[in-house]
Amino acid sequence: MEQAKLKEAKSAFTRANEAARSAVVRAPESADAIAEQGIAAYWLGYYHYRQSQLDEARKHWTKYLQTSEQLVRLDPEKTDWQIELSYALNNLGAVTRDQGRTDEALAYFRRSAKLKTSVLSARPHDDALRYDLVDTLSWISSGDGSEGRLSEAASGYAEQIGMLRTLVANK
User: Fold this and answer.
1) CA quadruple 36, 31, 127, 58: dihedral sign
2) How many whole angstroms separate alpha carbon 88 and alpha carbon 56?
3) CA-to-CA distance for 76 and 64, rounded, in angstroms?
4) What confidence score (pLDDT) does residue 6 get?
């Protein structure tokens, strides 16, 4: 994306964030308002992540995590909120890893993988989520490898290959 478009996007994300924040103040238990605030926080974090402004990205993605956790508390049975929480955890894992805190990042990724696995038990034919789980597992294997836990990394990669083979065979 060219720089002018990025600035325009950041401005739009900032306005959306302010509008969502106001909506949550007016209706603090509104799942729609909380979800909008989370979406705005995600996009602001994404903007800063793309700009390699990791502290700012982390700040917004932490807000995204908080809104996702709030949505799960409001409706713990709604799998869409659990998936959203898993995405927020993945984002925090990525930025934390880029900040050089691999073990902390791995904790985010493992929590994300656990959520995805749990949701897959309720939605066993959700191939998109299964691909997302493979992606999360790859972050875990990569982190294990970079920390010298090579047998764990190799095991994780083998598991991912098996999952991908199954997904391809089922198409």
Assistant:
1) positive
2) 15
3) 17
4) 77
